[in-house]
Structure formats: structure tokens, C-alpha cells
């Protein structure tokens, strides 16, 4: 497996800050519109962060050296 | 909700209960080690669980039966505010990804089994070790009791009321956990989690179509909250900080508990844990959808004695009895996995950080395993007695405090992985302030985990656990600075 550079790896870890910002600043999403499939924004925004966070952690996972 | 016995539902339930009971006993032979008479084998499954076993085990014991009952119940009562469980179980995973592999490696390299072992190894302080271990045990006990609350709700919906069915189920669990150790819940978790996935997917796919779609579900809930005069499907302006701080504090506390740490220590490698940080959010999606059952309860116009009945009553009302039986079996079995892992985690702490530390330092490997096995029995019987003889509210209040208590072990457990700056006395004073200060604030607020803070003219409510953690860390830093300046020669 090709190893990303050290700076690339650090940058990928910074992605992990995004879920904290996106979810802990409530004014970003405490609203009704735009609704999606009947879900108010408040609900689908937070549910959408589940796959998004999974993807961000996966990117970080790929950047970490396998050291087991 | 009816509490008549339905023969079809009961038969389905009994079939699955017997299935997992057989699996629980067979588990002693699964991935058979040379001997089970070693705490690494009985209490950590030989530290050999790969990605999928870890996924099912941690998923099965982090998302508990109580969660399945209580999160929709809270959403049913208060609305959007009850949804804090969703951001909580999302932001926990970047933390798990970054911290837990480091902790796992430290534990594997030095043969640590518990958080108390890690702290003792790092600081060489029996006092700090005891604080961390005792906090773990007392925070876990009420959590086990609450699994029984979840189980009671499922049994009640099947028409099995009274103390006998609950006691039988729990005693069977205690016996196979005694014999097979962590392998029992690990094996049962496969069945339990697959059942829960089927139940929730069926519920979120089929129930809204019977209730006029999701738009109608949200509209009915909003109308119900308006009629009741409390609750809302969006947060009020004064709830923002409480919502965010509950999510953050709970996320930091989640993997300090003995049962979640046991799942981490039992995995086969740091890479296994990182992969699980990617994969475990699947359970969070499930939890988020499950929480919506609270709103579906309003849309279905359920009349409930207790909010905890919202999930069982929905299944009874909207599904054929065989599927309702399947759903109740999933919830009841869902209580067994976390209860088993929690009792094992508590037993490991007692054995390593109390028995071995104070009673018998020369205990053999086999002796350790034996002490842990007996302790796991005692812990489960204790939880059962609490539920049978004390008001449920007592367990609820204690579990709430448990979250605040366990969060206070974070500095001692985690900081040492990254820095050698802190000294044991400083961390112990910090723990003391956080633990007792947090407890006082909760008591002072009438057993509510939220505290009103006034800052520059504006006031807001904050999760007490997070406030206590901030005080804990600040005091630990101050005392540490004082210690270092007082004794520069030893620095």
C-alpha cells in the first residue's frame, strides 16, 4: 500500500473536527426548512452526518500507517 | 397497550430466548482457548476478536435494550431535545478512532485488563487506581439495573408480568456468563443485533405508510406537543447549550465505562478498532431512526400508562403478533448482551484493582478468573435485587449520576497516554472535585443533570458532567503546577 506523506496524514486527521463543528453548533440546523421526504431539516441534517462522519473517519483511516 | 398473553407472540419469543440460551452455553467452546481459567480468556475473550466480532459486540453493548426503550420514550415526551442521543453517538467515533487504539496498545503490551490497571501502570498510585476502579463499578451497577427495565417493558408487552419471568431470564444469563465469560455475549450479540436491525428497518419502512407518511408523523407529534403545552419538534432557544453539552459530555464518557472498554481491550488490534470507528456509526443510524418511533407513537394516537411503553405498544398495534413477538424477543435479548458485558467489566475491575491489589496480591491466573466469575454473579444478582425491591426511579437517578461520575475518570485514563506531565496526586484531587462537585450540583438541581450558568448577563443550562470535567481538569492542572514548583528537584 502506498503511504501518504506525513503532512497528508495530518491534514486527513483534521477532517475529524468537522462533525464536532457541524453538530455542536446547534444554530446551524435547528430549523424546519428545507424539509426532505417529510423530514424537517433538523432531523435529516443530523442523520446525514452519520454517513458523512463514517466517510471522514474512513479517509483518516486510510491515511494512518498500519502499525499493528 | 394490552398485557394479555398472545400464544403466537409468546411462542416466537420463547423460541429465540431458548436459541440464545443454548448459544450462551455453547460459547464456552467457541474459539476454544487452551484454558478459560485465565482472566484474559474469561474476561477479554483472549484479546482476539476481529473486526466483525468487535462490531457486533461493541454495537450490542453500547446500544443497549434500555436505549431501544428509553430514547423513543424521551422523544415521545419532550421531542427534539431527546434527539441529543444522535449527535452524541456520532461525535463519539472520531474520539474512539484517535484515542482507543493508543489505549488498546498500552493495555496489550503490558497485560492490562481494566482502566484501573492502565492508571496504576502509568502513575504507580494505588489511590488513583482505586478511584478509577471504584468509579467504574458504581457507574456500571445502575446501568445493569436499567437493562432490566428495558427487559421488563418487553416482557410486560408479552403478558409476562411479575418478578418471576425477569428473574428466570436473568439467572440463566448469570449462569452462562459464569461459564463462558465474554465469549457468551460476543456470540449472542450476532443474533441480537441482526434481530434489532430487522425490527427497526421494518418499523421505519412500514409504520409511516400506515400513519400517512413521515410528514404526517412529524405534524401529528407537533400537534400533540402543542396540545400538551410542552415539548416541540425543534429545540427552544434556551435548549441549545444543554443539547450540545449533553452530546459532547456523553460522547466523552461513553468509552470510559467498563463495558465499552472491555469491548475495546478484547479486540485483536489497533487496526480493528480504527475500522470499527468507521463501521459502528451504522448503529447510530439505527438509533436515530428508532428515536422517531417516539413521534410515530403520537401519530398512531397511542394511549400509554408509561412513556416506556411507546415502542412495545406500537408493535402490538401495528404489526401481526408473530412479528411483535420477534420484536419483543429482540429487545429482551438486547438486554442480555450489555448486562453480561457490564457485569464482566465490573468483575474484572474488582478482581484486578481490589482483590489483587488489597486482598491477595499473589493470586494465580486461575484464581483471578475464579474471583472474576463469582463477582460477575454477585453483580448481576445485586442489580436484580435493586430492580425488584427499590423504586425504578432510584436506578434512573443513579444511572444519570453514573454518566457524570465515569466522565471524571477521563483525565486519569487518557491524559497519561499523551503526556507524562501530570502527577497522581493532582489527578486524584481533580477526580475528587469533579466527582463530588458534580454529584452535589445534580442533587442541588433536584436530580437533574443540567446546571444553570450565568455569564456576562446571559444565562444558559449546561450538562453538569461537562462542568464537573472542566473543574476536574482545571484543578488537576493547578495542583500539578503547585506540586512541580514545590518539588523542582523531583521533576
UniProtKB/TrEMBL annotation, chain A:
Q: Where are the transmembrane segments?
A: 12-29, 41-61
Q: What is this protein called?
A: DUF3311 domain-containing protein
Q: Which domain of life is it from?
A: Bacteria
Q: Which UniProt keywords apply?
A: Membrane, Transmembrane, Transmembrane helix
UniProtKB/TrEMBL annotation, chain B:
State the family named in the UniProt similarity comment for this chain: Belongs to the sodium:solute symporter (SSF) (TC 2.A.21) family.
Which molecular function term from Gene Ontology is one that the record holds? transmembrane transporter activity
Q: Whose protein is this, by species?
A: Xaviernesmea oryzae
Q: Which InterPro entries match?
A: Na/Glc_symporter_sf, Na/solute_symporter, Sodium:Solute_Symporter
Q: Which residues form a coiled coil?
A: none
Membrane-protein topology: Multi-pass membrane protein
Q: Where in the cell is it found?
A: Membrane
List where the protein spans the membrane: 6-28, 49-75, 81-104, 130-151, 157-179, 186-207, 240-257, 278-302, 322-350, 371-392, 398-418, 425-443, 463-483
Pfam families per the record?
SSF (PF00474)
**Protein's recorded name:** Sodium:solute symporter
Keyword set includes Transmembrane helix: yes
Arranged from A to Z, the UniProt key words for this protein are: Membrane, Transmembrane, Transmembrane helix, Transport
Region forming the signal peptide:
none
Q: Which PROSITE patterns match?
A: NA_SOLUT_SYMP_3 (PS50283)
Keyword flag Cytoplasm = no
Q: Which Gene3D superfamilies match?
A: Sodium/glucose cotransporter (1.20.1730.10)
Q: Which GO terms describe its cellular component?
A: plasma membrane
Amino acid at each position: 500500500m502506498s503511504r501518504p506523506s506525513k503532512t497528508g496524514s495530518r491534514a486527513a486527521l483534521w477532517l475529524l473536527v468537522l462533525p464536532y463543528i457541524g453538530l455542536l453548533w446547534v444554530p446551524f440546523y435547528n430549523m424546519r426548512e428545507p424539509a426532505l421526504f417529510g423530514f424537517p431539516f433538523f432531523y435529516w441534517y443530523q442523520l446525514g452526518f452519520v454517513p458523512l462522519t463514517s466517510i471522514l473517519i474512513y479517509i483518516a483511516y486510510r491515511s494512518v500507517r498500519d502499525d499493528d | 397497550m394490552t398485557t394479555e398473553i398472545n400464544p403466537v407472540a409468546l411462542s416466537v419469543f420463547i423460541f429465540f430466548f431458548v436459541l440464545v440460551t443454548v448459544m450462551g452455553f455453547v460459547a464456552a467452546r467457541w474459539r476454544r482457548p487452551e484454558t478459560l481459567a485465565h482472566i484474559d480468556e474469561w474476561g477479554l475473550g483472549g484479546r482476539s476478536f476481529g473486526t466483525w466480532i468487535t462490531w457486533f459486540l461493541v454495537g450490542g453493548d453500547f446500544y443497549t435494550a434500555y436505549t431501544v426503550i428509553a430514547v423513543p420514550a424521551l422523544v415521545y415526551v419532550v421531542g427534539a431535545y431527546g434527539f441529543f442521543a444522535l449527535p452524541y453517538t456520532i461525535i463519539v467515533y472520531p474520539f474512539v478512532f484517535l484515542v482507543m487504539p493508543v489505549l488498546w496498545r498500552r493495555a496489550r503490551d503490558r497485560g492490562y485488563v481494566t482502566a484501573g490497571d492502565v492508571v496504576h501502570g502509568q502513575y504507580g498510585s494505588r489511590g488513583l487506581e482505586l478511584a478509577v476502579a471504584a468509579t467504574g463499578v458504581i457507574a456500571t451497577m445502575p446501568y445493569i439495573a436499567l437493562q432490566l427495565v428495558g427487559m421488563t417493558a418487553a416482557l410486560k408487552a408479552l403478558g409476562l408480568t411479575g418478578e418471576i419471568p425477569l428473574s428466570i431470564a436473568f439467572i440463566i444469563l448469570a449462569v452462562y456468563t459464569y461459564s463462558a465469560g465474554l465469549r457468551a455475549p460476543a456470540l449472542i450479540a450476532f443474533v441480537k443485533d441482526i434481530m434489532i436491525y430487522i425490527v427497526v428497518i421494518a418499523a421505519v419502512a412500514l409504520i409511516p405508510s400506515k400513519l400517512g407518511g413521515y410528514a404526517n408523523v412529524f405534524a401529528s407529534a407537533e400537534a400533540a406537543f402543542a396540545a400538551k403545552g410542552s415539548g416541540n419538534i425543534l429545540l427552544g432557544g434556551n435548549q441549545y447549550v444543554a443539547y450540545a453539552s449533553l452530546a459532547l459530555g456523553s460522547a466523552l464518557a461513553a468509552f470510559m465505562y467498563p463495558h465499552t472498554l472491555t469491548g475495546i481491550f478484547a479486540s485483536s488490534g489497533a487496526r480493528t478498532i480504527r475500522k470499527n470507528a468507521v463501521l459502528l456509526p451504522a448503529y447510530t443510524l439505527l438509533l436515530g431512526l428508532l428515536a422517531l418511533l417516539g413521534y410515530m407513537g403520537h401519530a398512531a394516537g397511542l394511549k400509554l400508562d408509561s412513556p416506556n411503553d411507546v415502542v412495545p405498544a406500537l408493535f402490538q398495534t401495528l404489526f401481526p403478533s408473530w412479528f411483535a413477538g420477534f420484536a419483543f424477543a429482540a429487545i429482551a435479548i438486547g438486554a442480555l448482551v450489555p448486562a453480561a458485558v457490564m457485569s464482566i467489566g465490573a468483575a474484572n475491575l474488582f478482581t484486578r484493582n481490589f482483590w489483587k491489589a488489597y486482598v491477595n496480591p499473589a493470586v494465580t491466573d486461575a484464581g483471578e478468573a475464579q474471583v472474576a466469575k463469582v463477582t460477575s454473579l454477585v453483580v448481576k444478582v445485586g442489580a436484580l435485587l435493586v430492580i425488584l425491591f427499590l423504586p425504578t426511579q432510584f436506578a434512573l437517578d443513579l444511572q444519570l449520576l453514573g454518566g457524570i461520575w465515569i466522565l471524571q475518570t477521563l483525565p486519569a485514563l487518557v491524559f497519561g497516554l499523551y503526556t507524562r506531565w501530570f502527577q497522581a496526586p493532582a489527578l486524584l484531587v481533580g477526580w475528587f472535585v469533579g466527582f463530588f462537585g458534580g454529584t452535589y450540583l445534580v442533587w442541588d438541581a433536584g436530580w437533574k443533570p443540567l446546571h444553570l450558568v450565568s455569564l456576562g448577563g446571559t444565562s444558559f443550562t449546561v450538562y453538569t458532567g461537562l462542568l464537573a470535567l472542566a473543574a476536574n481538569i482545571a484543578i488537576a492542572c493547578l495542583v500539578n503546577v503547585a506540586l512541580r514548583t514545590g518539588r523542582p528537584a523531583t521533576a
